[in-house]
Write a structure and sequence with these properties.
The protein has 128 residues and is α/β, with parallel strands linked by helices. It is built from four helices and four strands, in the order E-H-E-H-E-H-E-H. The chain has a four-stranded parallel sheet, with helices on both faces. Helix 2 links the parallel strand 2 and strand 3.
């Protein structure tokens, strides 16, 4: 079975957390290539709505907490309804309640909160 890749001009792209920072740059890049974009936001309503308003008919802002299945289902349904077709591409970028403070990180080895990262770092080759 051959698969056909849709040109970006025919795609509906969901960018989770797509209203700020690098995620907004990803949203703008898809828009610049002609895709229609669903800008998911959790707390950045103004940024999401401003970005969507700058691209009428090509971008929509929809609030959904990606940790909540019912909200994601509603987002997908609303996007399909408003754009007249299903989402074809997902860029999963949402960082729910994420805040980075490098000074507050502490010692990675001592932090239970960062156990997975610690284990990954411990397994890295010594030349990295």
């Amino acid at each position: 079975m051959a698969h056909t890749i849709l040109p970006l001009t025919e795609q509906i792209v969901l960018v989770t957390g797509g209203a700020r920072g690098l995620r907004a740059a990803i949203t703008r890049a898809f828009l610049a290539q002609g895709a229609r974009v669903v800008i998911d936001y959790h707390t950045s309503q103004d940024a999401a709505e401003d970005l969507a308003a700058a691209h009428p008919g090509k971008a929509i802002a929809i609030r959904a907490d990606v940790r909540d299945r019912a909200q994601v289902d509603a987002l997908v349904a609303e996007a399909a309804d408003r754009f007249g077709g299903p989402i074809t591409t997902v860029v999963n970028n949402a960082l729910a309640d994420f805040s980075f403070n490098g000074d507050a990180r502490g010692d990675v080895k001592a932090s239970k909160q960062h156990g997975a990262r610690r284990r990954a770092v411990e397994r890295m080759p010594r030349w990295v």
